[in-house]
Structure formats: structure tokens, C-alpha cells
User: Which sequence fits this backbone?
């Protein structure tokens, strides 16, 4: 099936998911939308996140996508279930694949989850993890400053080291052996988080697990693009083309040449 896959995020963090999809599904075309004018979603209400997500899904549907990935933990937590009932193509988020891997990986039964304020407040990772294994202890922590640090490009910086240690000290005290990076921006500061948490703590990257789940889903539904070709990827944002392209070039395996601004409020 040659139609593209739609991927959306509140901004640029979802590019980590797009990167994993490109690696694991190299024949697939992508349509990526980053809501850069309205980022961040993590501090917004469920009503607002649902409204924004619906607008983006309507836009992606105009591109004839065959499946949609909500490459945003906040949208996955607050909007995914309702939108899934409203559209007739598959839509998956980043929460369930990450939660599943956390359960499979922990030895001690102590799992840490970090994310935006909305994702943590929703309790969605806790619910999924405990659904899979009620014996697991889940420690959650909102880390709201991680997103602006990433978006400012401070991936390897002393200020990032300081904020990571301030946020994650209690994770060490709870002796978590698995830490879920519950925001798509967070894998971009993975090295700093790993350095602080230590080698014995396994970091779960939901972006990687989501791409794996997408591949399984498309395969099961016989929707994989079997044509060997150079994939075509389209990029759209709601604002800030230059900064988006600059950031994308640090994340993606391919150079982003053309990005268009969309009036997403009109959808």
C-alpha cells in the first residue's frame, strides 16, 4: 500500500519518532506535521490538546495517509482514544509501546516515568504498566524544563546537567532499574540522563518501540509499502520553518529541504 504514514507532534520532538520509522520502515513515505506555533502541549488542558489533535488529524487525512502516529506523549495520553473512534484508519501513540517495553525490561519491579506535566498528571503510563503487571512500582516525575532545553539546542550543556540531576535525584532514591523517556524530546538528551542515572538503569525510548509497533501493525494489515524506492517525506509546521529545518537536520538521517507552513486552525 503506497499511501504515506502521517506523523504529528506538538513541535520537533516527534522527529525522534520519524527517525525511527525511517530506519525501521525505509520504504515508507511520511507526512510530518509539527505544531510549532502552539508548542508545548504538556501544560495545556485535555480539551485543548484534543482540539489541536483533531485539527492535525483532519489535515493529515487530506494527504491520504494510511495510518497516523501521534508522536507526542501528551496527545497520546489525552486525545488518542477519542480520535481512534472518529477515524477509519489506524492511529497509534507512543505510550503503550513504551509501557510494554518497561514491563518486559524491569528486573526489580521499580519503573520510573518522566514526561510533561500533562502526561504525568494523566497517569496513563502508570495505568498501562500496572495493567500489564500490577506488582510493578511506578515512580513518575514531570520534567517541564527538558523540552525548552532541547528546543534551544542545549543537548550537551552544563545547565542541562544541572536540571537533569535536580529532576532525577528522586529516581535514584527509589532505585528504579528502568526509566521511560515519556516525551519525544527526551531521547535527544539521553546521554545526559544516562550519565546521571548510571549504567545499571535501562532507558526505554518509546520512539523506537513505537516504530516497531507500527511495523507490526502495517504488516498484520498488509499495508506495508513493498515497492523499493527512494521514499518521499513531506514536512509541515504551523510556524518557524527555519528553526524547524535547522533542528530536523540534527535529528533526521536525511536533509530536510522543503517545509511548508500550514494554517492549522482552519482544519
Assistant:
Amino acid at each position: 500500500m503506497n499511501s504515506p504514514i502521517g506523523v504529528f507532534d506538538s513541535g520537533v520532538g516527534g522527529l525522534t519518532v520519524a527517525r525511527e520509522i525511517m530506519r525501521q520502515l525505509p520504504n515508507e513515505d511520511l507526512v510530518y506535521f509539527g505544531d510549532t506555533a502552539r508548542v508545548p502541549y504538556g501544560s495545556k488542558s485535555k480539551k485543548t490538546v484534543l482540539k489541536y489533535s483533531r485539527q492535525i488529524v483532519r489535515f493529515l487525512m487530506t494527504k491520504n495517509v494510511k495510518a497516523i502516529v501521534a508522536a507526542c506523549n501528551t496527545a497520546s495520553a489525552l486525545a488518542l482514544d477519542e480520535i481512534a473512534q472518529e477515524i477509519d484508519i489506524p492511529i497509534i501513540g507512543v505510550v503503550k509501546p513504551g509501557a510494554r517495553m518497561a514491563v518486559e525490561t524491569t528486573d526489580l519491579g521499580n519503573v520510573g516515568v518522566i514526561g510533561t506535566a500533562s502526561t504525568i498528571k494523566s497517569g496513563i503510563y502508570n495505568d498501562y504498566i500496572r495493567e500489564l503487571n500490577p506488582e510493578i512500582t511506578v515512580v513518575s516525575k514531570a520534567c517541564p524544563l527538558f523540552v525548552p532545553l532541547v528546543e534551544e539546542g542545549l543537548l550537551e550543556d552544563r545547565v542541562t546537567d544541572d536540571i537533569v540531576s535536580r529532576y532525577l535525584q528522586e529516581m535514584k532514591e527509589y532505585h528504579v532499574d528502568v526509566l521511560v523517556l515519556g516525551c519525544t524530546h527526551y531521547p535527544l538528551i539521553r546521554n545526559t540522563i544516562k550519565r546521571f542515572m548510571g549504567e545499571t538503569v535501562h532507558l526505554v525510548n518509546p520512539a523506537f518501540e513505537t516504530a516497531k509497533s507500527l511495523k507490526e501493525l502495517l504488516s498484520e494489515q498488509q499495508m506495508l509499502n513493498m515497492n523499493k524506492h527512494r521514499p518521499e517525506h513531506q514536512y509541515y509546521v504551523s510556524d518557524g520553518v527555519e528553526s524547524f529545518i535547522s533542528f530536523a537536520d540534527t535529528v533526521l538521517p536525511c536533509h530536510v529541504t522543503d517545509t511548508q507552513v500550514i494554517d492549522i486552525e482552519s482544519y
